[in-house]
Amino acid sequence: MDKEMFDYTAAKVEELLAAGSSSQTTREAAQGWKDAIAAGKDADEATKTLLDAIDQHHTTIDELIAFASGAAKDIMGEEVAAGMLAHAQEIKEKGAKYCDCAACTAAHELLAKHGRPVL
Prior knowledge:
Helix 1 (3-18) runs antiparallel to helix 7 (102-113), helix 2 packs antiparallel against helix 3 (43-54) and helix 4 (61-69) packs antiparallel against helix 6 (78-93). The chain has helices spanning 3-18, 24-38, 43-54, 61-69, 71-76, 78-93, 102-113. Helices cover 72% and strands 0% of the residues.
């Protein structure tokens, strides 16, 4: 992996770790990448492992709407859930197929950069 791609991947890993919307699985995959790099493991292999993990977690816009309509109310409160629902419905109307939170955006950008675009 060349330096530019490595640096891009490292930056996206930091975004995944910093995003409050990252799932536990995503956080573990991102931390696993950092740990592998720190241990001197092959960056290409570590990146493949990371990409395989995050490629399994695509929150569709309909899943986001369902979450915002249900469980989000208990987790985040009525007001936050209502805002999330309104946002999700708005971006769906504009053609969005997937969640656009910080974690999903970073994951999708990372996947695309490595030739695995989310369709």
